[in-house]
Amino acid sequence: MIDSFKQDWHSTTVVCVRRNGKVAMISDGQVTYGNTILKGNAKKVRKMGDGKVLAGFAGSVADAMALFDRFEAKYREWGGNLLKAAVELAKDWRMDKILRRLEALLLVADREYTFIISGTGEVIQPEDDIAAIGSGSPYALAAGRALLRYTDLDAKTLALESIKIASEICIYTNNNFTIEEL
Protein backbone atom coordinates (compact mmCIF):
# COMPACT_ATOMS: atom_id res chain seq x y z
CA MET A 1 0.00 0.00 0.00
CA ILE A 2 1.26 3.47 -0.87
CA ASP A 3 1.30 6.07 1.88
CA SER A 4 -0.70 8.94 0.40
CA PHE A 5 1.22 11.50 2.43
CA LYS A 6 4.42 10.58 0.63
CA GLN A 7 3.07 10.89 -2.90
CA ASP A 8 4.26 13.71 -5.10
CA TRP A 9 2.23 16.59 -6.41
CA HIS A 10 2.60 17.05 -10.13
CA SER A 11 0.92 19.83 -11.87
CA THR A 12 0.80 21.94 -14.88
CA THR A 13 2.48 23.42 -17.80
CA VAL A 14 2.70 27.18 -18.26
CA VAL A 15 4.04 28.69 -21.49
CA CYS A 16 4.77 32.33 -22.32
CA VAL A 17 5.44 33.48 -25.88
CA ARG A 18 6.43 36.91 -27.16
CA ARG A 19 6.09 37.76 -30.84
CA ASN A 20 5.54 40.91 -32.92
CA GLY A 21 4.80 43.11 -29.90
CA LYS A 22 2.28 40.66 -28.39
CA VAL A 23 2.70 38.46 -25.32
CA ALA A 24 0.61 35.38 -24.58
CA MET A 25 0.69 33.15 -21.50
CA ILE A 26 -1.22 29.88 -21.32
CA SER A 27 -1.56 27.06 -18.82
CA ASP A 28 -3.36 23.79 -18.61
CA GLY A 29 -5.81 23.06 -15.80
CA GLN A 30 -4.64 19.74 -14.39
CA VAL A 31 -3.66 19.15 -10.77
CA THR A 32 -2.31 15.67 -10.11
CA TYR A 33 -1.48 13.97 -6.82
CA GLY A 34 0.39 10.71 -7.23
CA ASN A 35 -1.49 8.83 -9.93
CA THR A 36 -4.78 10.68 -9.42
CA ILE A 37 -6.08 13.73 -11.25
CA LEU A 38 -7.67 15.88 -8.56
CA LYS A 39 -8.80 18.75 -10.74
CA GLY A 40 -8.91 19.44 -14.42
CA ASN A 41 -9.82 23.12 -14.64
CA ALA A 42 -7.48 24.98 -12.29
CA LYS A 43 -6.62 28.55 -13.33
CA LYS A 44 -2.86 29.02 -13.17
CA VAL A 45 -2.35 32.21 -15.16
CA ARG A 46 -3.72 35.67 -14.56
CA LYS A 47 -3.22 39.34 -15.23
CA MET A 48 -1.93 41.59 -12.47
CA GLY A 49 -0.42 45.04 -12.10
CA ASP A 50 -3.50 46.77 -13.51
CA GLY A 51 -3.50 44.40 -16.47
CA LYS A 52 0.09 45.17 -17.50
CA VAL A 53 1.66 41.91 -16.29
CA LEU A 54 0.93 38.26 -16.99
CA ALA A 55 1.77 35.77 -14.25
CA GLY A 56 1.60 32.00 -14.10
CA PHE A 57 2.66 29.38 -11.60
CA ALA A 58 3.66 25.76 -11.32
CA GLY A 59 3.64 24.03 -7.95
CA SER A 60 1.63 24.32 -4.79
CA VAL A 61 -1.45 26.49 -5.27
CA ALA A 62 -1.42 28.05 -1.81
CA ASP A 63 2.29 28.81 -2.15
CA ALA A 64 1.77 30.29 -5.59
CA MET A 65 -1.06 32.53 -4.38
CA ALA A 66 1.17 33.83 -1.58
CA LEU A 67 3.91 34.49 -4.13
CA PHE A 68 1.50 36.20 -6.55
CA ASP A 69 0.47 38.57 -3.76
CA ARG A 70 4.07 39.29 -2.81
CA PHE A 71 5.10 39.76 -6.42
CA GLU A 72 2.27 42.19 -7.10
CA ALA A 73 3.20 44.16 -3.96
CA LYS A 74 6.83 44.34 -5.16
CA TYR A 75 5.66 45.39 -8.62
CA ARG A 76 3.67 48.26 -7.15
CA GLU A 77 6.46 49.17 -4.71
CA TRP A 78 8.93 49.49 -7.59
CA GLY A 79 6.61 51.59 -9.73
CA GLY A 80 5.78 48.95 -12.32
CA ASN A 81 9.40 47.88 -12.92
CA LEU A 82 9.08 44.15 -13.66
CA LEU A 83 12.81 43.43 -13.48
CA LYS A 84 13.25 45.10 -10.10
CA ALA A 85 10.08 43.45 -8.72
CA ALA A 86 11.29 40.02 -9.88
CA VAL A 87 14.76 40.45 -8.36
CA GLU A 88 13.38 41.77 -5.07
CA LEU A 89 10.88 38.89 -4.80
CA ALA A 90 13.63 36.34 -5.52
CA LYS A 91 15.83 37.89 -2.82
CA ASP A 92 13.02 37.79 -0.26
CA TRP A 93 12.01 34.29 -1.28
CA ARG A 94 15.54 32.95 -0.87
CA MET A 95 16.35 34.74 2.40
CA ASP A 96 13.07 34.57 4.36
CA LYS A 97 12.77 31.41 6.49
CA ILE A 98 9.06 31.02 5.83
CA LEU A 99 9.10 31.95 2.15
CA ARG A 100 12.02 29.59 1.56
CA ARG A 101 9.69 26.65 2.16
CA LEU A 102 7.27 27.66 -0.59
CA GLU A 103 7.22 25.18 -3.46
CA ALA A 104 6.35 26.89 -6.71
CA LEU A 105 7.84 28.59 -9.72
CA LEU A 106 6.55 31.85 -11.15
CA LEU A 107 6.56 32.92 -14.77
CA VAL A 108 5.97 36.65 -15.23
CA ALA A 109 5.94 38.86 -18.30
CA ASP A 110 5.14 42.36 -19.43
CA ARG A 111 5.51 43.94 -22.87
CA GLU A 112 9.30 44.16 -22.44
CA TYR A 113 10.51 41.26 -20.27
CA THR A 114 9.80 37.63 -19.41
CA PHE A 115 11.22 36.05 -16.24
CA ILE A 116 11.14 32.72 -14.45
CA ILE A 117 11.45 33.29 -10.70
CA SER A 118 12.41 30.53 -8.26
CA GLY A 119 12.82 30.12 -4.53
CA THR A 120 16.54 29.51 -4.94
CA GLY A 121 17.03 33.13 -5.89
CA GLU A 122 16.98 32.63 -9.65
CA VAL A 123 15.53 35.26 -11.96
CA ILE A 124 15.95 33.78 -15.40
CA GLN A 125 15.28 35.73 -18.57
CA PRO A 126 14.96 33.32 -21.50
CA GLU A 127 17.36 33.89 -24.36
CA ASP A 128 14.60 33.57 -26.93
CA ASP A 129 10.96 34.62 -26.98
CA ILE A 130 9.51 31.60 -25.17
CA ALA A 131 9.62 30.34 -21.61
CA ALA A 132 7.89 27.42 -19.89
CA ILE A 133 7.59 26.01 -16.36
CA GLY A 134 6.00 22.93 -14.86
CA SER A 135 5.88 19.23 -15.56
CA GLY A 136 5.28 19.60 -19.29
CA SER A 137 7.66 22.50 -19.80
CA PRO A 138 10.39 20.62 -21.71
CA TYR A 139 7.85 19.44 -24.29
CA ALA A 140 6.13 22.82 -24.63
CA LEU A 141 9.46 24.63 -24.84
CA ALA A 142 10.80 22.33 -27.57
CA ALA A 143 7.59 22.61 -29.58
CA GLY A 144 7.49 26.38 -29.12
CA ARG A 145 11.07 26.89 -30.22
CA ALA A 146 10.45 24.90 -33.38
CA LEU A 147 7.29 26.87 -34.10
CA LEU A 148 9.10 30.17 -33.49
CA ARG A 149 11.82 29.22 -35.95
CA TYR A 150 9.75 27.74 -38.72
CA THR A 151 6.36 29.46 -38.69
CA ASP A 152 4.86 32.94 -38.66
CA LEU A 153 2.22 32.08 -36.05
CA ASP A 154 1.17 34.91 -33.73
CA ALA A 155 2.04 34.73 -30.01
CA LYS A 156 -1.34 33.37 -28.89
CA THR A 157 -1.52 30.64 -31.53
CA LEU A 158 2.11 29.68 -30.99
CA ALA A 159 1.59 29.35 -27.22
CA LEU A 160 -1.58 27.34 -27.76
CA GLU A 161 0.02 24.94 -30.23
CA SER A 162 3.06 24.49 -27.94
CA ILE A 163 0.97 23.51 -24.93
CA LYS A 164 -1.27 21.28 -27.05
CA ILE A 165 1.81 19.30 -28.05
CA ALA A 166 2.92 19.11 -24.41
CA SER A 167 -0.55 17.87 -23.40
CA GLU A 168 -0.23 15.02 -25.90
CA ILE A 169 3.05 13.88 -24.31
CA CYS A 170 3.02 14.83 -20.61
CA ILE A 171 0.60 12.87 -18.41
CA TYR A 172 0.52 15.79 -15.95
CA THR A 173 -0.77 18.26 -18.56
CA ASN A 174 -4.35 18.29 -19.85
CA ASN A 175 -6.02 20.19 -22.68
CA ASN A 176 -8.21 22.50 -20.57
CA PHE A 177 -6.37 25.77 -21.23
CA THR A 178 -6.47 29.26 -19.78
CA ILE A 179 -4.83 31.99 -21.85
CA GLU A 180 -4.07 35.65 -21.15
CA GLU A 181 -2.62 38.21 -23.55
CA LEU A 182 -0.95 41.61 -23.58
Automatic annotation (TrEMBL):
Top-level EC class: hydrolase
Reactions listed under catalytic activity: ATP-dependent cleavage of peptide bonds with broad specificity
Major subcellular location class: cytoplasm
Gene3D superfamilies, per database record: Glutamine Phosphoribosylpyrophosphate, subunit 1, domain 1
Subcellular location: Cytoplasm
Alphabetical UniProt keywords: Allosteric enzyme, Cytoplasm, Hydrolase, Metal-binding, Protease, Sodium, Threonine protease
PROSITE patterns the UniProt entry points to: PROTEASOME_BETA_2
PANTHER family in the record: ATP-DEPENDENT PROTEASE SUBUNIT HSLV, METALLOPROTEASE TLDD
This protein's name: ATP-dependent protease subunit HslV
